[in-house]
Amino acid sequence: MITQLDLHLFKCFEILRLPIAPLTLLSGSNASGKSSVLQALALLHQTIREHEWSRRLMLNGETVRLGTVSDVVDKVNGRRTFEVGIKDGDNDYLWTFKGDRSEMSMMVDRVIVNGEQNGQHDVLRFLLSYKIGVTPPKLAYRLQGLTYITAERVGPREVYVLEDHQSASVVGPTGGNAVSVLHWSRDEKVIKELALPEVPNTCLRQVEERMRLFFPGCALIVQQVPQANAVTLGLRTSSDTDFHRPVHEGFGLTQILPIVIALLTASKEDIILIENPEVHLHPAGQALMGQFLADAARSGVQVIIETHSDHVLNGIRRSVKLERLKPEQVAIHFFKPRASDEAQVLSPLLDINGNIDVWPEGFFDQFDKDMNFFAGWGM
Q: What is the SS3 string spanning 207-238?
């Protein structure tokens, strides 16, 4: 698994060395760099998936659209280049990208693997030097199959486009392919450690049962439209009613469904990036989401989330206390706006009881501040 992500001159970071765990939680104020961490990995994924043999990093594609070189290079200290480094198991990878500030892609300037520089003019595959007969490293395929789910997910739809499973094997950044993925994967098995024992271990039944934990009574049905590349999704939240179109069953169901499908169709060591998994969930559901993410990490899926929810955090802490996840399997990072005299990222630690060692100013402390105000302590 990825154990560290390094960024140099990327967006708001001059230098960032970020430990990554099986479950990594990114928190902090708005515009402090949390999304930039996810976007750095998404850029590698986008290029590897859409342009397997490219010598350029594609800044705009189906996964992310970040604009031009001037939009992604650190505006304070950078000019035309940035670097992305990944430590994956015992292997270290470092890419340097460069380009003119008005360009919408960047040349791969150099690739260093375990301290050895790939030839500057080598043919690249998966952004790594290609050698006939040599199998690419596992990281290349894991980045290629990465799932990135943004905070702006599609709402209820009358019908959903049915894509070929090869071209749409993941739910997509807005979750637009989620129902299509569920249709094709309906009879496949879920990772054993992540499967709920109450129902058969098929993807469709496991997704339905997992959704019931968030939305009691939830049931779903996926049907292909005859003679059309489309599927419909029927939902209900009570056995006393018929299935309804998604628009009649609440916005929250369609916002959570892509996350559930993404995690339950994942394989061990897959990488899942999720922005704001708590969107449209009530507090109890947010805590449950934290526990679900912890279960996914325990099963072998690598999960990196950006969240503003203390309930998600507490769900993860509860999983640690219940020994469903070890403290060292969780990394928590608190991002602060860049200041010359302060660290941009602080990383509190969990103990075996789910306790956090330090609570930096602004780290999920707004409830306490508000309560102190009403008690007269903050007057």
A: HHHHHHHHCCCCEEEEEECCCCCEEEEEEECC
